[in-house]
Amino acid sequence: ERKRIIERQQQGIALAKQQGKYHGRKPQYTQDDPRLQHAFQLYQTGMSDADIARTTGIKRTTFIRYRKKFKVQR
Fold this sequence. Notes:
By secondary structure, the protein is mainly α. It has one domain. The protein has helices at 2-19, 34-45, 49-56, 60-69. It is elongated and about 55 Å long.
């Protein structure tokens, strides 16, 4: 029964995507977010990901994901 529920759910999601109604969750930070830009600046000055997380309040894994997404390098 659980497998059938999941199949129907997947069919509904696929149909909604075709109709343009399924968008998913909005991103937590935009590229021009001041906190994220500050974190990128700290990263480029040589701070570690863990230190940036403590300083800015952005979680380490979230920062790493956004760093890769926006291709920020030292």
